[in-house]
Amino acid sequence: QPTECFLSQPEEKQESTVKAKRRKKKKISDILEKSAPKPGVPADLQNLLSQHFGENRSVIEIEELKLSDSCFLPANDLTHSFSSYLKEICPKWAKLRKNHKEKKSVVMLVICSSALRSLELIKSMTAFKGDCRVLKLFAKHIKIKEQMNMLEKGMFHIGVGTPGRVKALVEQDGLCLNSTKYMILDWNWRDQKLRRMMDIPEV
Question: What is the pTM of this model?
């Protein structure tokens, strides 16, 4: 009997610690909900790259991965709508769009965390895109072969999609980035779990 009592006590403790952990998680999300969103800056991306590649690469290789400031356009300071932001960073869009003749490529690549978010962004860029063609580059309900066929046969100006599918298309030679002039990262948006795209381990 005493041993049975002894065994039941640690189990109760484990349950209480699990409950405590769950409460802590809720508190973190509450803090995120209340805190004001910060616009992403070039240093955020540089830090992410050095953290990701830091363990496997030498100091020289990490230096080569650093992007110069001239690679970056101003970040959205969160006062713009998506269309007005694109108009500000890409004032010569009409000319770029007309000059784009290459297949298997896009002039602008927008990367975000989910298929639903991709659809939201496509809808919200109507004022900017004009009559140019936009291609959905995510996995939900669309096979990779379909996207590869579309890129090969048609001509698209903007691609909006998720990191996993964009990576797969590039690796399978379905998407060529040589004529891509702009890459927009949907940095500030948070999903239902309040994670940004960069907080998702797979990304």
Answer: 0.80
